[in-house]
Amino acid sequence: MTRLILVLGDQLTRDVAALREYRDGDVVVMAEVAEEASYVPHHPKKIAFCFAAMRKFAAALKEDGLNVAYTTLDDPENAGSITGELLRRAEEFGATEVIATEPGEWRLIEALEDCPLDVRQLEDDRFLASHAQFETWAKGRKELRMEWFYREMRRQTGLLMEGGEPVGGKWNYDHDNRKPAPGEVDHSGPMNFTPDEITEDILSLVERKFSMNFGTLDGFFFATEAGQARRALAHWVRYALPKFGDYQDAMLPDEPFMWHSFIALYLNAGLLSPMEVCRAAEDAWKAGDAPLNAVEGFIRQVIGWREYVRGIYYLKGPDYAQENWLDQNRQLPEFFWGAETRMRCIAQTVSQTRDHAYAHHIQRLMVTGNFALLAGINPQEVQHWYMSVYADAYEWVMSANVIGMSQFADGGVVASKPYVSSANYVDKMSGYCSGCHYKPKVKTGEGACPFNLLYWHFLDRHRETFKGNPRMGQMYATWDRMAEDKRATILSEAETFLNRMAQGGLV
Ligand code: FAD
Ligand code: DLZ
């Protein structure tokens, strides 16, 4: 009996669980469908990347002799959704059984569960920690802190380990990885790939169908197959990894990539695997080409944070993304979608997001995320924005980062205190403030940076919630030491700012 093997747009590797089950007579089903391409208004570069990589992967499977049924977006027979396409192909091939690899989003897992065919969802074992392993780790713990999970992953993988101990004697070199931005970036950024014929076709398709989405297709340079992604990885290891650690948290105007790897989109789509990227970094350290703080910092992001946020997503279930523990309900301002703002840090982050479908971690966390949290934006609106604008966005990796780490909307599952800061942090870590309309050192009145006003407004309005948090005692002590009239001025100016922002005024 013919079986259908479903391969989704972020499962593009021969080593994905469902494809390992392939045997003669099976049909691999791949489909570009409107539902996946529009359940959020994805950045056009994300859609182009996904479709181009899907078409090339399907072609490679066919070349290897697999039977592939591929549906393009503009195929008149296209059923418009993954389950619709499965039903159509089932009828075409007389199949009733489907083997799938568990999707990275609950909505699609549930759609497959509801599909009237016999669908078997295999666990996605492209990750180092299985669901069962993460559940066992989490069970009975009062706090699910990433650091403890990370150490288990180090032991499990043997990465940067010697005789059961971390090399260099320390697990974590984060303290060495907070250098402020240097004058300039001394390498040329991620490796660029000129679009070939397949990619050009996709770019035209995406231009026709998705040009109303936020983001530009101009200058598309992404890798769209595994071989290219490996070259991009090697390029980064050689030219940027050595300084990745030092400047991991730094930001400079007009430098969208700094020393970051730009590989999350390739990892998440299956073009690279977590172990191969970590081995590449570890090899550079062994060869003396990259320092330990850089390599440990990178490996921690991949086997620590990446695995941990996925573990939280599946552990907490479909409702996690709906949490709003701080009951924040303001609307996301239009300047997140490119309207003018005088806050240079936000304008820079949003404009590079529009251009490249990319911002690095500290921009996501301490610029846009920090602002949204301070300003009281609804966390689901915030998550919708992040899901819409980044090429590496999928709910499995987004939720614990946005709902948990960035917006504290899960009440402290991921973070022990909210990631909030006044203008001081952005000023110290970036070059944004020097050319800004607002002044980071000005706390109230003309030119006062909104981050300064909103920081105290946030702490004040959530005092009841955070007063028992020992990690926030110092912040409240500083607030309480301020003269009463100064506090009143800050709160009133913050209110004026929030009202102006809500009315769409230039802020
Ligand atoms: P680098 O800085 O070079 O880091 C190396 C790799 O480590 C990344 O490619 C990524 O695979 C992994 N990594 C680093 N930090 C994290 C993290 N916190 N969670 C998961 N993986 C991590 N990452 C996504 O892949 N998709 C998302 O949708 C996403 N949304 C985010 C939203 C917010 C609010 C925040 C704060 C972070 C988010 N991240 C997300 C994590 C991180 O910002 C990106 O992985 C990173 O910026 C991608 O750029 P890079 O490949 O240059 O990463
Ligand atoms: C991101 C994406 C897009 C834009 N389009 C498709 C598509 O047409 N077909 C497909 O199989 N996958 C697509 N994807 C990736 C899926 O959205 C992804 O598999 C789910 O969100 C689960 O992670």
Automatic annotation (TrEMBL):
Cross-referenced Pfam families: DPRP
User: Which keywords appear in this protein's UniProt record, sorted alphabetically?
Assistant: Lyase
Is Lyase among the key words of this record? Answer: yes
User: Which region is the signal sequence?
Assistant: none
InterPro entries for the chain: Crypto/Photolyase_FAD-like_sf (IPR036134), PhrB-like (IPR007357), Rossmann-like_a/b/a_fold (IPR014729), UV-DNA_repair_photolyase (IPR052551)
A single MF term (Gene Ontology): lyase activity
State the source organism's domain of life. Bacteria
PANTHER family xrefs: SLR1343 PROTEIN (PTHR38657)
> What name does UniProt use for this protein?
Cryptochrome/photolyase family protein
Organism annotation: Palleronia caenipelagi
Which lineage do the record's taxonomy fields give for this organism? Answer: Bacteria, Pseudomonadati, Pseudomonadota, Alphaproteobacteria, Rhodobacterales
